[in-house]
Amino acid sequence: MIKRINCSLDQLLKLFVVVLFILLMQFSTSTLARTFYAEGSDIMLGVGARNIALAGAVTSSTNDVYSTYWNPAGLSRLQKSEITISHRPGAELVPVNFLGAAFVVPDILDSGWKMSYAFAFIPRLHIYGSGTFHEDEFESIFMRYALPGLEGDFTGTIESKTKDYRMAFGFSPIASPEFRAGFSIGYVDCATTFCGIKADSPGNYTIASAGATAFTFNFGFQYDYSEKFTFGLNVNDLNTKLDVEVIETGDTGTTNKNYIVELPRDIALGMVWHQSKQLDISADVRYLSGNYGSYVIDFRTARVGVELKNYWEGVDLQAGLLIPIKFASDKTKEFDIPYFAAPSFGIGYKKGKFKLESALFVEPVSSYQVSKPRAAFELSLGYEI
Questions:
Q1: How far apart are the first and last CA of the chain?
Q2: CA torsion angle for 303, 336, 289, 64 (degrees, to 10)?
Q3: d(Cα 64, Cα 226) in Å, to the nearest integer?
Q4: What does pTM read for this prediction?
């Protein structure tokens, strides 16, 4: 979206065009309704229809290719290699919510250890905003994460895509499969474009483009305490820092800026109660805290899930609740969530090598924007190799 000023133009003509463009943008952004979309795994939803249907209470129970995101230790529970894709009908920005493949190594070089490894593509955060946004608003947290150095209020259009290409490994001793561990390494690639008027330069119209990359390290554990209880821990984004380069073009010319942006730590603790062969009841607590762009955030949620396995032949049912505990940042007051809990429901069907899963759920970010629960839908398709 960067549009470089044509240096061959006469200086007076160039100034006239810039001023006219600013006036037109000010008029259009003051008369048109504000637009904002945020999608991806970083908005507290995660990935995979079954996991979303359980409200993300899967740290201790995940056992398929989606473990690449939720807890890599769960990969070691895979019985067969598989590929999967997840899609959210009605999504404005992200057509594919997850794409992954996992492979089983039954015994690593006769060492007595089982291993599974996986590759995944995860859209972490895609946002689009157009209009006037104030620094103390909920949406601005995502804006500043997308474009570091964006200070105060601004009027304009911003679009950002953050993608995560991840490789994960899960291990367990064949003699003691109740102990499981895993880790993943991700390559994060961000691209952002912005055009508008920033508060720190109210008289200048700015067009900017930002690119950022980073490597992430994540690890997790699972432990079967007994036949009835399993515990899990997952830690994401350990000391992850984005190296950001921003190119800005305004009426004074083009400048290059560099930033280091730290990502917040994402920690999940969970347990599952295997009440019977058919019924699992799970609970997680998730903490997302630390620097997020130019903000310091503190997001805490509790998650509860119930799953009925093989309720009918090949059919599983899920239900869950995502319970907000705290949403706060250093530049905003604590946000008042418009609902006690965000419910979710799911149904999965397995036939032969194919597995189809679906989830109907309340989407947290858009629900906050409209101050009432807002529904969304997820579909996942898997195939055993």
A1: 42
A2: 30
A3: 21
A4: 0.84
